[in-house]
C-alpha cells in the first residue's frame, strides 16, 4: 500500500534560452524541495528552454532525450516522483514540436507523458498576442499514472481553461492533478487562482501548479504565484514573487473524506 500522506512541492523559476543554465537551476530547486521532504516535485512548463518562437522547433529534443535522461537520474538519486513540467518534444520529419510533460518514479523510470492538447492562440488587445500553433502541435490523449503516492493526472497551462479534460482525468482515477504552467501576467492576474481552485473543487482533487515567473526571452511576462490546492479548494501553499519552492501536505484520507461527505462525483447527471 502506498503513502496516504506526503509532501508535494511546486518549483517556480524563470527559464531562459540557455538549456545548461536552466537545467542546473531546476536541479538545484528540485534538490531543495527534496531536502524539505517532498516526495512529489513538479517543475513548470518549458522549464528547460524558453527563447524566440522562431527557434522553438530547432530547440526541441526527442523523448527520451538529454533533458529526460537528466530528470530520470535526478528522480532516482533523490528517490522522488518528479514531474518535468514540460519540454518541447521533437516531432518526426521536422514538424511542429509537441509540448510534453513527463513523470518519473523514484527508480528514474518515465511512467507517464502527456502532450499538451490545447494551444494558446490569443490576442488580448493592449496586453499579449500569442499563437502557439505556429510552432507547436497539440496532443490528443489523456495521461495519468497510478503510483505509490496515488493516481496522478497530467495537464499543462492553457488546458486549465477546459474543465472536460480534468473531469476525464478524475473519472480515470486521478487524485492529484498537475498543472505546470507559464501563465501570462494579464491572464494570470485575472484567472489563475480562480481556475485552479475551481478545478480542485469540481473534481475533489489536489492540484499542484508550478508556474514560470518573470520575463521570458521572447518578452512574455509570466505571472508566477505557483499554487498547491486541496480538494476543498483551499490554497495550501502559494509562491512569492521570485524563484523558489513551495511545499504542502497531500492527505489522501482527507480527499476520501471530502468525496464521501460531499459525493458530487456520484451525482453527475450529464457527461460530456
Task: Outline the structure in words.
It is built from six helices and 16 strands. It is of the alpha/beta class and 272 residues long. The strands form four sheets. It has a six-stranded mixed beta sheet with strand order 5-4-3-2-1-16. Helix 1 (19-35) runs parallel beside helix 3. The longest helix is centred in the C-terminal third of the chain and has 19 residues, at 185-203. The two termini are 33 Å apart. The mean pLDDT is 97.
SSE diagram, text form:
Blueprint lengths: L4 E8 L6 H17 L2 E5 L13 H4 L6 H13 L2 E9 L8 E7 L5 E6 L5 E4 L3 E4 L12 E4 L2 E5 L8 H9 L4 E3 L6 H19 L2 E4 L3 E3 L5 E3 L3 E3 L5 E4 L5 E8 H10 L11
Helix pairs in contact: 1-3
Mean pLDDT: 97
CATH hierarchy, class? Alpha Beta
CATH architecture: 4-Layer Sandwich
Q: Main sheet, how many strands, which sense, barrel?
A: 6 strands, mixed
Number of strands: 16
Strand order of the largest sheet: 5-4-3-2-1-16
- Secondary structure: helix percent: 25-40%
The unreliable regions are none
Strand content: 25-35%
How many separate domains make up the residues? 1
Number of helices: 6
Per CATH, what is the topology?
Answer: Nitrilase/N-carbamoyl-D-aminoacid amidohydrolase
Order of helices and strands: EHEHHEEEEEEEHEHEEEEEEH
Radius of gyration: 17 Å
First CA to last CA: what distance? 33 Å
In CATH, what is the homologous superfamily? Carbon-nitrogen hydrolase
> Structural class, from helix and strand content?
alpha/beta
Q: Shape from CA axes?
A: globular
